[in-house]
Amino acid sequence: MDIKQLINFITIVEEGNITKAAQKLHISQPPLSNQLKALEEELGVKLIERGSRKVTLTDVGNLLYKRGKDMVNVFESTLNEVEDFKSGIEGVLKIGAVSTCNQFIPNELISPYAKQYPKVKFELYEGNTYEVVDMIERGIVDIGVVRTPFNSENLCCLNLRTEPMVVVVNKNGEKFGFEYREKIDLKDLDGKPIVIYRRYEKLIMDVLQLNKVKANIYCLNDDSRTTIAWAQAGLAIGIVPKSIIDNSNKEIEVYELDEEELKTQISVAWMENKYLPRSARNLLDMIRNSNF
Protein backbone atom coordinates (compact mmCIF):
# COMPACT_ATOMS: atom_id res chain seq x y z
CA MET A 1 0.00 0.00 0.00
CA ASP A 2 1.37 3.43 -0.97
CA ILE A 3 0.26 6.94 -0.08
CA LYS A 4 -1.51 7.42 -3.42
CA GLN A 5 -3.71 4.37 -2.82
CA LEU A 6 -4.51 5.69 0.64
CA ILE A 7 -5.46 9.14 -0.68
CA ASN A 8 -7.69 7.56 -3.34
CA PHE A 9 -9.39 5.36 -0.74
CA ILE A 10 -10.03 8.36 1.54
CA THR A 11 -11.47 10.32 -1.39
CA ILE A 12 -13.89 7.48 -2.23
CA VAL A 13 -15.09 7.43 1.38
CA GLU A 14 -15.53 11.20 1.60
CA GLU A 15 -17.23 11.56 -1.78
CA GLY A 16 -19.59 8.68 -1.04
CA ASN A 17 -19.18 6.83 -4.33
CA ILE A 18 -16.49 5.91 -6.82
CA THR A 19 -17.85 8.04 -9.67
CA LYS A 20 -17.68 11.31 -7.69
CA ALA A 21 -14.27 10.34 -6.28
CA ALA A 22 -12.93 9.70 -9.79
CA GLN A 23 -14.15 13.12 -10.89
CA LYS A 24 -12.47 14.81 -7.94
CA LEU A 25 -9.21 12.92 -8.55
CA HIS A 26 -9.39 13.65 -12.30
CA ILE A 27 -9.14 10.01 -13.29
CA SER A 28 -11.63 7.66 -14.93
CA GLN A 29 -13.81 5.36 -12.85
CA PRO A 30 -12.51 1.89 -13.95
CA PRO A 31 -8.87 2.47 -12.87
CA LEU A 32 -10.06 3.83 -9.50
CA SER A 33 -12.30 0.77 -8.98
CA ASN A 34 -9.36 -1.48 -9.87
CA GLN A 35 -7.11 0.37 -7.40
CA LEU A 36 -9.65 -0.16 -4.62
CA LYS A 37 -9.97 -3.84 -5.47
CA ALA A 38 -6.18 -4.24 -5.55
CA LEU A 39 -5.90 -2.54 -2.13
CA GLU A 40 -8.47 -4.91 -0.64
CA GLU A 41 -6.65 -7.93 -2.12
CA GLU A 42 -3.31 -6.69 -0.82
CA LEU A 43 -4.67 -6.22 2.71
CA GLY A 44 -6.83 -9.36 2.56
CA VAL A 45 -9.93 -7.57 3.84
CA LYS A 46 -13.07 -5.98 2.46
CA LEU A 47 -12.96 -2.21 3.02
CA ILE A 48 -16.18 -1.05 1.40
CA GLU A 49 -19.66 -2.41 0.75
CA ARG A 50 -20.66 -1.14 -2.68
CA GLY A 51 -24.24 0.11 -2.92
CA SER A 52 -26.15 1.32 -5.95
CA ARG A 53 -25.69 4.97 -4.98
CA LYS A 54 -23.40 5.13 -1.97
CA VAL A 55 -20.54 3.09 -0.56
CA THR A 56 -20.57 1.92 3.06
CA LEU A 57 -17.47 1.33 5.16
CA THR A 58 -16.87 -2.00 6.80
CA ASP A 59 -15.46 -1.97 10.35
CA VAL A 60 -11.92 -2.50 9.10
CA GLY A 61 -12.53 0.07 6.34
CA ASN A 62 -13.53 2.60 8.98
CA LEU A 63 -10.33 1.83 10.90
CA LEU A 64 -8.19 2.33 7.78
CA TYR A 65 -10.03 5.57 6.97
CA LYS A 66 -9.38 7.09 10.42
CA ARG A 67 -5.74 5.98 10.60
CA GLY A 68 -5.21 6.83 6.96
CA LYS A 69 -6.37 10.41 7.47
CA ASP A 70 -3.73 10.86 10.16
CA MET A 71 -1.05 9.33 7.93
CA VAL A 72 -1.94 11.54 4.97
CA ASN A 73 -1.94 14.65 7.19
CA VAL A 74 1.54 13.78 8.48
CA PHE A 75 2.74 13.09 4.93
CA GLU A 76 1.39 16.39 3.59
CA SER A 77 2.72 18.34 6.57
CA THR A 78 6.16 16.84 6.00
CA LEU A 79 6.10 17.86 2.33
CA ASN A 80 5.06 21.39 3.33
CA GLU A 81 7.91 21.61 5.84
CA VAL A 82 10.40 20.45 3.21
CA GLU A 83 9.11 23.18 0.88
CA ASP A 84 9.51 25.71 3.70
CA PHE A 85 13.15 24.78 4.15
CA LYS A 86 13.74 24.90 0.39
CA SER A 87 12.23 28.34 -0.02
CA GLY A 88 13.63 29.86 3.15
CA ILE A 89 11.55 32.56 4.83
CA GLU A 90 9.71 33.56 1.69
CA GLY A 91 6.38 32.64 0.13
CA VAL A 92 2.89 34.04 0.53
CA LEU A 93 1.07 34.52 3.83
CA LYS A 94 -2.72 34.33 3.41
CA ILE A 95 -4.64 36.36 5.97
CA GLY A 96 -8.38 36.68 6.51
CA ALA A 97 -9.39 39.98 8.05
CA VAL A 98 -12.51 41.70 9.33
CA SER A 99 -13.19 45.20 8.04
CA THR A 100 -13.01 46.73 11.51
CA CYS A 101 -9.30 45.85 11.66
CA ASN A 102 -8.39 47.45 8.32
CA GLN A 103 -6.12 50.00 10.02
CA PHE A 104 -4.72 47.78 12.76
CA ILE A 105 -3.46 45.04 10.42
CA PRO A 106 -1.13 47.03 8.12
CA ASN A 107 0.00 49.57 10.71
CA GLU A 108 0.57 47.46 13.80
CA LEU A 109 0.63 43.81 12.73
CA ILE A 110 2.22 43.62 9.29
CA SER A 111 4.64 46.57 9.35
CA PRO A 112 6.96 45.12 12.05
CA TYR A 113 6.65 41.65 10.50
CA ALA A 114 7.54 42.92 7.01
CA LYS A 115 10.69 44.57 8.34
CA GLN A 116 11.84 41.25 9.78
CA TYR A 117 10.74 39.10 6.82
CA PRO A 118 10.96 41.33 3.72
CA LYS A 119 10.67 38.47 1.20
CA VAL A 120 7.22 37.36 2.39
CA LYS A 121 4.28 38.55 0.28
CA PHE A 122 0.63 38.68 1.34
CA GLU A 123 -2.84 37.77 0.18
CA LEU A 124 -5.61 39.48 2.14
CA TYR A 125 -9.17 38.12 2.16
CA GLU A 126 -11.74 40.39 3.78
CA GLY A 127 -15.15 39.66 5.25
CA ASN A 128 -17.06 39.70 8.51
CA THR A 129 -15.95 37.51 11.40
CA TYR A 130 -18.19 34.59 10.40
CA GLU A 131 -16.83 34.69 6.85
CA VAL A 132 -13.22 34.86 8.05
CA VAL A 133 -13.73 31.90 10.41
CA ASP A 134 -15.20 29.96 7.47
CA MET A 135 -12.13 30.84 5.37
CA ILE A 136 -9.88 29.48 8.13
CA GLU A 137 -11.84 26.24 8.41
CA ARG A 138 -11.86 25.71 4.63
CA GLY A 139 -8.12 26.36 4.35
CA ILE A 140 -8.50 29.46 2.15
CA VAL A 141 -6.38 31.48 4.59
CA ASP A 142 -3.59 30.48 6.96
CA ILE A 143 -4.72 32.72 9.81
CA GLY A 144 -7.55 35.15 10.46
CA VAL A 145 -7.76 38.43 12.35
CA VAL A 146 -11.22 38.54 13.89
CA ARG A 147 -13.21 40.19 16.66
CA THR A 148 -14.94 38.61 19.60
CA PRO A 149 -17.47 37.17 20.00
CA PHE A 150 -17.09 34.19 17.64
CA ASN A 151 -17.25 30.40 17.80
CA SER A 152 -13.70 29.29 18.62
CA GLU A 153 -14.40 25.54 18.43
CA ASN A 154 -11.57 23.77 16.51
CA LEU A 155 -9.61 27.03 16.47
CA CYS A 156 -6.50 28.18 18.29
CA CYS A 157 -6.60 31.85 19.29
CA LEU A 158 -4.30 34.61 20.48
CA ASN A 159 -5.93 37.74 21.86
CA LEU A 160 -4.11 40.81 20.57
CA ARG A 161 -5.97 43.73 22.07
CA THR A 162 -9.01 44.61 24.13
CA GLU A 163 -10.66 47.86 23.17
CA PRO A 164 -13.73 49.83 24.19
CA MET A 165 -16.85 50.61 22.21
CA VAL A 166 -17.40 54.25 21.34
CA VAL A 167 -20.44 56.39 20.58
CA VAL A 168 -20.59 58.13 17.19
CA VAL A 169 -22.87 61.05 16.30
CA ASN A 170 -23.14 63.55 13.46
CA LYS A 171 -20.93 66.57 14.15
CA ASN A 172 -23.27 69.17 12.72
CA GLY A 173 -26.61 67.57 13.53
CA GLU A 174 -28.34 66.55 16.73
CA LYS A 175 -25.82 65.92 19.53
CA PHE A 176 -28.28 63.97 21.71
CA GLY A 177 -27.15 65.96 24.73
CA PHE A 178 -23.51 64.81 24.53
CA GLU A 179 -21.91 68.23 24.07
CA TYR A 180 -18.74 68.98 26.00
CA ARG A 181 -18.33 65.40 27.17
CA GLU A 182 -15.17 63.31 27.01
CA LYS A 183 -16.90 60.07 27.96
CA ILE A 184 -20.50 58.90 27.75
CA ASP A 185 -22.21 57.06 30.58
CA LEU A 186 -24.56 54.24 29.61
CA LYS A 187 -27.46 56.07 31.26
CA ASP A 188 -26.97 58.86 28.71
CA LEU A 189 -28.23 56.36 26.10
CA ASP A 190 -31.50 55.69 27.92
CA GLY A 191 -34.35 55.68 25.39
CA LYS A 192 -32.28 57.31 22.64
CA PRO A 193 -32.15 55.78 19.13
CA ILE A 194 -29.08 53.65 18.52
CA VAL A 195 -27.73 51.89 15.43
CA ILE A 196 -25.51 48.83 15.86
CA TYR A 197 -23.86 46.01 13.94
CA ARG A 198 -25.95 42.86 14.44
CA ARG A 199 -22.97 40.88 15.77
CA TYR A 200 -22.79 43.15 18.81
CA GLU A 201 -26.52 43.14 19.52
CA LYS A 202 -26.40 40.58 22.33
CA LEU A 203 -23.32 42.13 23.93
CA ILE A 204 -24.78 45.63 23.89
CA MET A 205 -28.30 44.60 24.91
CA ASP A 206 -27.03 42.49 27.81
CA VAL A 207 -24.96 45.39 29.16
CA LEU A 208 -27.83 47.87 28.75
CA GLN A 209 -30.25 45.55 30.54
CA LEU A 210 -27.74 44.90 33.32
CA ASN A 211 -27.49 48.64 33.89
CA LYS A 212 -31.28 49.14 33.57
CA VAL A 213 -30.92 51.33 30.51
CA LYS A 214 -33.87 51.29 28.09
CA ALA A 215 -32.71 50.19 24.64
CA ASN A 216 -34.15 51.88 21.57
CA ILE A 217 -32.72 50.03 18.56
CA TYR A 218 -33.25 52.26 15.53
CA CYS A 219 -31.35 50.06 13.08
CA LEU A 220 -29.56 46.69 13.09
CA ASN A 221 -27.11 46.11 10.24
CA ASP A 222 -24.32 43.81 9.07
CA ASP A 223 -21.27 46.07 9.10
CA SER A 224 -19.80 48.56 11.56
CA ARG A 225 -19.07 50.88 8.64
CA THR A 226 -22.82 51.02 8.00
CA THR A 227 -23.33 51.96 11.63
CA ILE A 228 -20.96 54.90 11.22
CA ALA A 229 -22.67 55.99 7.98
CA TRP A 230 -26.11 56.07 9.64
CA ALA A 231 -24.74 57.95 12.63
CA GLN A 232 -22.96 60.39 10.28
CA ALA A 233 -26.30 61.01 8.56
CA GLY A 234 -27.72 62.07 11.93
CA LEU A 235 -30.29 59.27 12.03
CA ALA A 236 -29.21 57.72 15.34
CA ILE A 237 -26.37 57.14 17.78
CA GLY A 238 -23.80 54.65 16.47
CA ILE A 239 -21.97 52.22 18.76
CA VAL A 240 -18.81 50.68 17.26
CA PRO A 241 -15.34 49.40 18.30
CA LYS A 242 -12.92 52.28 18.76
CA SER A 243 -10.29 51.22 16.23
CA ILE A 244 -12.67 51.32 13.26
CA ILE A 245 -12.97 55.10 13.57
CA ASP A 246 -11.28 56.99 10.75
CA ASN A 247 -9.73 60.01 12.45
CA SER A 248 -9.80 61.92 9.15
CA ASN A 249 -13.62 61.87 9.13
CA LYS A 250 -14.54 65.43 10.12
CA GLU A 251 -18.30 64.84 9.94
CA ILE A 252 -18.59 62.80 13.13
CA GLU A 253 -17.90 63.23 16.82
CA VAL A 254 -16.71 60.28 18.87
CA TYR A 255 -17.18 59.71 22.60
CA GLU A 256 -15.79 56.87 24.67
CA LEU A 257 -18.29 54.79 26.62
CA ASP A 258 -17.47 54.66 30.29
CA GLU A 259 -18.39 50.98 30.66
CA GLU A 260 -15.90 48.21 31.48
CA GLU A 261 -18.11 45.39 30.18
CA LEU A 262 -18.74 46.91 26.75
CA LYS A 263 -15.50 45.90 25.07
CA THR A 264 -14.36 43.63 22.24
CA GLN A 265 -11.11 41.80 21.56
CA ILE A 266 -9.09 41.62 18.38
CA SER A 267 -7.84 38.04 18.05
CA VAL A 268 -5.76 36.06 15.60
CA ALA A 269 -7.11 32.55 14.94
CA TRP A 270 -5.98 29.47 13.05
CA MET A 271 -7.05 25.85 12.67
CA GLU A 272 -6.13 23.48 15.46
CA ASN A 273 -4.11 20.39 14.43
CA LYS A 274 -3.49 21.67 10.91
CA TYR A 275 -0.16 22.52 9.32
CA LEU A 276 0.76 26.20 9.24
CA PRO A 277 3.36 27.50 6.78
CA ARG A 278 6.53 28.86 8.22
CA SER A 279 5.53 32.43 7.34
CA ALA A 280 2.40 32.09 9.51
CA ARG A 281 4.29 30.48 12.38
CA ASN A 282 6.79 33.33 12.35
CA LEU A 283 3.98 35.87 12.56
CA LEU A 284 2.47 34.05 15.54
CA ASP A 285 5.88 33.94 17.24
CA MET A 286 6.24 37.69 16.71
CA ILE A 287 2.78 38.27 18.23
CA ARG A 288 3.61 36.15 21.29
CA ASN A 289 6.78 38.17 21.85
CA SER A 290 5.15 41.56 21.31
CA ASN A 291 2.99 43.78 23.44
CA PHE A 292 -0.22 44.44 21.56
From TrEMBL:
Keywords assigned by UniProt, alphabetized: DNA-binding, Transcription, Transcription regulation
Residue intervals of the HTH lysR-type domain: 1-58
Domain of life: Bacteria
Classification via InterPro entries: HTH-type_LysR_regulators, LysR_HTH_N, LysR_subst-bd, WH-like_DNA-bd_sf, WH_DNA-bd_sf
A matching Pfam family: LysR_substrate
CDD domains attached to this UniProt entry: PBP2_LTTR_substrate
Family of the protein in this entry: Belongs to the LysR transcriptional regulatory family.
Protein name: LysR family transcriptional regulator
Gene source species: Intestinibacter bartlettii
